[in-house]
Amino acid sequence: MTRRFADARELLDDLLDRHEAGAERPIARPDHAAFPSVLAADAFARELADAEQSGAISIARGRGVRREEISHVRLTAPDALYRHLRRTPAARLADEAHALLVNGLTLHPALADAACAVADQWRRARNWAGLGPEHADKVRGALVLAQAILDKRQVDLDYRTFSRRIAGDSKALERVEAVVVRLLSAIVDLPSEAKPREALRTLGIERFAPPLLIGGPIDLVGADLATALPLYLGLPPKEAERIRFRRPPSYLLTIENFASFNRHLIEADPDHAGATIYVGGYPSLATQQALGALAGAAPEDTPIFHWSDIDPDGAWIFRTVERAIGRPLRPHLMSPDIAERFRKVPAGKLTVTPCTSESGIAELVAYFTREDAKVLEQEELDPRIPQ
């Protein structure tokens, strides 16, 4: 629908806005009923006449009794209208902003492509992630932080220290978290439903790593827990290498949800036949490394399982644990059959990252590509010993 205007400058700017968005020879119409007075209508007509005289627009008038009335205005020469309004073209602003984005930076090819995609949006006078060319410095900061993450410069640093060392400001990352995650999501596999802070945790960007919680037949190097084993033990993930199994566990089970972790230890395995580990939702990089150490300490014939929600993010967590342990991983209480039995309809269309057929979660990932796929939160299931 053609917009109507009572302000000549707004009308002319709208013509250029739509030209920059890709419209050919856009038109706009005056809103005659909105003029507050005859003087205002005359000033409106004079301003448009000046623009027509510059060759930028053409004015069409009505017929009959309305032959003196402006019917509509068409853009005929964008360059002339830019000069008439003393307005800088979006393409020039975008080119200048793109130069600011990448000048002096050595970027991963995908980040360089992302910077070009941002500038392409700006050339069409569209924002990218809510940011326009006037925010080029903010996007550049996000590119710098994203590249540092790809270069593993966050390893062994807490969130604020990483931000200060890379950007010179301990709160810089906090201000552009969502932008950094959007840039990285085209390069690394991140959970689609995670908040930006949660997604960054999986890459090692966190204030401080949460403790690793584990229950089972375990001891620590230098500490015999045989007579005083609690329900579970919590320790910094980096100390996972101190954990030893007092006897071979019948299984290793990693669990996404804290309530399900506690219920499993209390209700399903109070005798600690197996070893049960809480991964803290989306497992942090430190937790992933700890899982690798625990899998390495377990006997080779110990089966390893993971229990998450039956949804795409649960599948993402499964694959992350699978990569971390470097051993075959089996899904526990995560199957299409269970989803179909409970028949919980997802809130929207499911989006899942494909995986190889060798992955233990391949069957569930394939199921999520079906239009009638169902989902289920793991809290709705009672815990039981893995089979």
Beta-strand percentage? Answer: 5-15%
User: How much is the radius of gyration in Å?
Assistant: 30 Å
Q: Please trace the helix and strand order, writing H or E for each element.
A: EHEHEEHHHHHHHHEEEEEHEHEHEHH
Q: What share of residues is helical?
A: 40-55%
Shape estimate: elongated
How many individual domains?
A: 3
Q: How would you explain this protein's 3D organization?
A:
- This protein is an alpha/beta fold.
- The protein folds into three domains: 4-85, no CATH class; 90-201; 212-380, Dna Topoisomerase Vi A Subunit, Chain: A, domain 2, CATH 3.40.1360.
- 41% of the residues lie in helices and 11% in strands.
- It has 15 helices and twelve strands.
- It has helices at residues 8-20, 38-53, 78-85, 90-102, 109-123, 136-150, 159-167, 172-175, 177-184, 196-201, 258-268, 285-297, 312-325, 336-342, 362-368, and strands at 4-5, 27-30, 57-61, 70-75, 212-215, 218-220, 233-235, 243-245, 252-255, 275-278, 304-307, 330-331.
- The strands form three sheets. The protein has a six-stranded mixed sheet, sandwiched between helices. The chain has a four-stranded mixed sheet with strand order 1-2-4-3, covered by helices on one side.
- A hairpin with an 8-residue loop joins strand 3 (57-61) and strand 4 (70-75).
- The radius of gyration is 30 Å and the shape is elongated.
